[in-house]
Design a protein that fits this description.
Bound molecules: (Z)-L-Arabinonhydroximo-1,4-lactone
Strand content: over 45%
CATH class of the largest domain: Mainly Beta
Number of domains: 2
GO molecular function: hydrolase activity, hydrolyzing O-glycosyl compounds
Largest sheet: 8 strands, antiparallel
Protein name: Glycoside hydrolase family 43 protein
Family: Belongs to the glycosyl hydrolase 43 family.
CATH architecture of the largest domain: 5 Propeller
CATH topology of the largest domain: Tachylectin-2, Chain A
Distance between the termini: 15 Å
Keywords: Glycosidase, Hydrolase
Number of helices: 1
Helix content: under 10%
Length: 525
């Protein structure tokens, strides 16, 4: 049994950044418009990652209201120095630019400090603490005369760890090896007296790649590593199961081995829906610099880190994960959009579930709807939700949603028909176009209805379980409708439970008594 199977963190977990303290590894990933922001995972073997908390748990830390869900919190870097954890990250605000901040904590599970804004141009900030304890901040920004697309200039300043201010002169480090597009995700490392700058190039799509430069001093001059790209799948053709590999961060084990965490995607028939996932890649330091995936140069499907950790083979299909309704949802990996929903999603009065209050904040808007959602982490899955919703308005609904971003989502929801009779409706939204795919009458008002979404290589299939347990399929949406290749954006599919209204609220609340997510076996397995 292989000790790991890639990706080690399936589902939408892009821009991984990793650090080690003693024998424990911590990993942060981008959270975009989801709240709480920046999940923190912990591991002792780089394989089994446990969600231990989030960096941004208070909405004031990073206001996300009004943002496209693909904007928001991008590409955090986490480092540890002298008993303190540091995270730098950017809040992207579309055309309104981006702002960068640093937060600190003594426990990576939190609480994290209020953010300290940094006067830093660009995105993808990173920190590097040198042997002498000085801390260096890097990021990427547009080059003065952009010869290429996207940010293309990696720059550096010192970060004073006592005041958390950028200080001293600014140094332009490098403009990339490939000079193609998007020189991003810089991270610095010191090895045998030489400073190594690892970057992502080519954009986060099929041309993504890891490139490098090195210098005798942290401030430069940096010389392009002529072996660049050091890791990419861009040349492997569309048949390779893992694509878009890049944006790597390195970490050393206590006994001196090095591993990279990098993002990648797993397209099926050229289209991926699970987002950019986190993959583990062995790295060997040689006289010529880091060699990624020695011997093959490609992200391994399986392998072993040889590090002590849980003996459970992996996290593949193994029963339904039932949402525990009386435990914090965030700790179970469920998120809301752009802010907390404690006022909209709360324990029902009789304690038998969650009560969702429909509000005018819709799934396709840029506010905070009554929604809790989790990443789709397996191509084949089943989501089940049992709910009762006694609305008399056809403008109100409560149900389940498949959400790529606010312009691409499907809902199967209980609402009222024209005469106020309870119905379940399946709708697909593509931008401003809404397709009413199906509707069926459901029981009598206030009865508990089970809604089911099943996904596989072909489609998302939506069903209602009728009395007696018979499942009635209402319709299906091709899987490719939710693929980044067709719908764009930075996210993977999230599966949620929601309530919303486009009219005057009737005061009805939906009571959700059961939610479960279940990974199903791959057809090939
Ligand atoms: C990330 C940047 C990127 O900050 O996507 O395309 C951004 N490149 O590296 C969001 O993941």
């Amino acid at each position: 049994m292989p000790a790991f199977q890639n990706p080690v963190l399936p589902g939408c977990h892009p821009d991984p950044s990793v650090c080690r303290v003693g024998d424990t590894y911590y990993l942060v990933t981008s959270s975009f418009g989801y709240f709480p922001g920046i999940p923190v995972h912990r591991s002792t073997d780089l394989v089994h990652w446990e969600l231990v908390g989030h960096v941004l748990t208070r909405p004031e830390q990073a206001p996300l209201a009004g943002l496209d869900v693909n904007d928001g919190v991008w590409a955090a870097t986490m480092r540890h120095h002298a008993g303190r954890f540091y995270v730098v990250a950017t809040v992207a605000r579309g055309r309104r630019g981006a702002s960068t901040f640093v937060v600190t904590a003594t426990d990576p599970a939190g609480p994290w400090s209020d953010p300290v804004p940094l006067e830093a141009d660009g995105i993808d900030p990173s920190l590097f603490v040198d042997d002498d304890g000085r801390c260096w901040f890097t990021a990427t920004r547009d080059a003065p005369e952009p010869a290429v697309t996207g940010p293309a200039e990696l720059w550096l300043r010192e970060l004073d760890l006592a005041t958390l201010r950028l200080t001293g002169p600014e140094h332009v480090l490098w403009h990339g090896a490939l000079r193609g597009a998007w020189v991003e995700g810089p991270h610095l490392y010191l090895r045998d007296g030489r400073y190594w700058l690892i970057a992502a190039e080519g954009g986060t799509e099929r041309n993504h790649a890891v490139t490098a430069a090195s210098a005798p001093a942290v401030t430069g001059p940096y010389a392009t590593d002529p072996r660049s790209p050091l890791l990419t799948h861009r040349h492997l053709g569309p048949g390779h199961p893992v694509q878009n590999v890049g944006h790597a961060d390195l970490v050393d084990t206590p006994d001196g081995a090095t591993w990279a965490l990098t993002l990648g995607v797993r397209p099926v028939d050229g289209a991926h829906t699970l987002g950019r996932e986190a993959f583990l890649v062995p790295v060997e330091w040689t006289e010529r610099g880091p060699v990624f995936a020695p011997g093959t140069g490609t992200v391994p499907a399986t392998g072993s880190t040889g590090l002590p950790g849980p003996t459970a083979p992996d996290d593949r299909p193994g029963g339904a994960e039932v949402l525990t309704l009386d435990a914090p949802l965030a700790a179970q990996g469920w998120s809301s959009l752009r802010g907390p929903v404690d006022h909209l999603v709360r324990p029902a009065d009789d304690g038998r579930g969650l009560a969702l209050t429909p509000t005018a904040a819709t799934l396709w808007g840029t506010g905070t709807p009554a929604l809790v959602a989790r990443r789709q982490q397996h191509l084949r899955f089943r989501l089940r939700c049992r709910l009762a919703f006694a609305t008399t308005s056809s403008h109100e609904e409560a149900g389940v949603t498949v959400l790529l971003h606010q312009q691409r989502l499907a809902t199967l929801a209980v609402s009222a028909g024209p005469d106020g009779e309870p119905v379940a409706r399946l709708r697909m939204r593509t931008g401003d176009v809404v397709a009413d795919l199906a509707g069926v009458p459901v029981l009598e008002r206030d009865a508990i209805v089970e809604l089911v979404v099943r996904g596989d290589e072909q489609s998302y299939r939506f069903a209602v379980v009728l009395p007696g347990g018979d499942e009635r399929v209402l319709g299906e949406v091709p899987r490719t409708a939710f693929a980044t290749e067709t719908a764009g954006g930075f996210l993977g599919v999230h599966l949620g439970v929601h309530a919303q209204t486009t009219g005057t609220p009737t005061g009805a609340r939906a009571v959700v008594s059961h939610v479960s997510y279940e990974a199903l076996e791959d057809r090939a397995a």
